[in-house]
Amino acid sequence: MIHFLKRAIVVGGGIGGLSAAIALDQMGVEVTVYEQAAEPGEVGAGLTLWPNAIKALRKLGLGKQVIKTGAKIFRGEICTPGGKILSGLDSGELEFRFGAPVVAIHRADLHKILLAALPPGSIRMGMVCSGFQQDEEGVTVHFANGQSDRADLLIGADGIHSRIRRQLFPEVALRYSGYIAWRGVVTIADESLRGISREYWGRGKRFGIVPLGNRRIYWYATANHPPGQTPPPAQRKETLLRHFGRWHSPLHAAAVKTVIAATPAEAILYNDIYDFSPLPQWRRGRVVLLGDAVHATTPNLGQGACMAVESSLALARCLADGKDLRSSLRRYESERMPRTAWITRRSYRLGRLGQLENPLACLLRNMMVWLTPERVMKKSIEKAVGYEA
Question: Which of 35, 254, 298, 356 has the fewest CB atoms within 10 Å, counting from its CB?
């Protein structure tokens, strides 16, 4: 029980917002989550949960269910478009070292698990936040439909385009990565992909394949491209085939072209990739930010969802251990800032490396990755995934 916190409002019903709501509910805080989507659905595509996220989910009592629903990844590889392995990592060693596996899961499946862990009626859908007001006694959140709600604490977990962050810190500008991403999930029977994720690095573009279990494959692709365009589904697929149709690995049965061709055009997601530089402040008064609203990162380290779950646990713990709201939020901010800033910067740099386009630069990059000792690669990855919230 947190004596200074009776009720909290979470704006944003994504992974971070739901995880925070679950953690606070388990501590006896009354929580209401407001989500702008009209109803839960098959949102997003796939994602990877590293040991740091699995251990955090275990603390919420959800670890076993997540592992059972997803698919364990035993090895990750970086390859050339023709299938030559430049670098490999044994994920099984990470499980042995840190006590938790690497799991790939459909975002919608994880979302369902999190929703089911909340008390009935805890989430309200179709609620678009229009702003908030706060005073010494509490914070009032307003919605586009004219409704409002009041609590002791407001958690802004409403994503990279956060309305809460824009009101708190209007000066924050998004940073375009220089590339776009396509994503999809398709069902293909291919035993060569069981337990192995692969990312192929080309010139100014990449393609990744991650098994989700039950013959489902999550794939993603990137290409250097100006932002601000939203092509129709048929054009997305046509562009993908033009970019990646010739990529083929004789070692792996599921050629890139086969994966793209098997995905319905209307099921292909398309996004410009943004993040923003680490912020010097995460809170103001009774309002605090969480997840992509405050530490958005490019997807190159696969740590976006992991960071959100970590931050949720850290926020709940700081509130439980704190003497008052102000000092608890200050501790949460100071504890999480260094780690999330490191992840954001490292992920951004890795994306720049993967998206190199000059032929000579790509040749040198591939040689560097190929010659880097496995222990060096492992040490870098362990710093990201070995953390325990």
Answer: 356
